[in-house]
């Protein structure tokens, strides 16, 4: 597997839609100021994983999207990509990484296993900011958890 920092133009929107179902939302954070990272496996020419990071302050960033193509999930690619991203960000002088996720589901336990901790709850985030309701395991996402990790 190859993990590298790439240009925003190298990331397919279709891949990012795996983690964020709103094309307009993706367009807002996928830009030239973003840090973009990708995972490639030997059998593919396109990225099978991507992580988009937005700078918040001098030493603080937010992971806006981390996506793995469905056929490559549950193989450790996401964890390897996230660990690579955290190492690269630390080398750039970042000391705090934040992200937002739903209040339940596999994503929450994934981030907690990687060392992220809960910082805050944003009530009705998914209701107020998405045109269509987002369901997981038959439950509608409503509130967002803000998570962070200190590097």
TrEMBL record:
It holds the Pfam family Acetyltransf_1. Residues 1-151 form the N-acetyltransferase domain. InterPro entries: Acyl_CoA_acyltransferase, GNAT_dom. One of its GO terms (molecular function) is acyltransferase activity, transferring groups other than amino-acyl groups. Keywords: Transferase. The keyword Transferase applies. This is GNAT family N-acetyltransferase. It comes from Shewanella maritima. The lineage of its organism: Bacteria, Pseudomonadati, Pseudomonadota, Gammaproteobacteria, Alteromonadales.
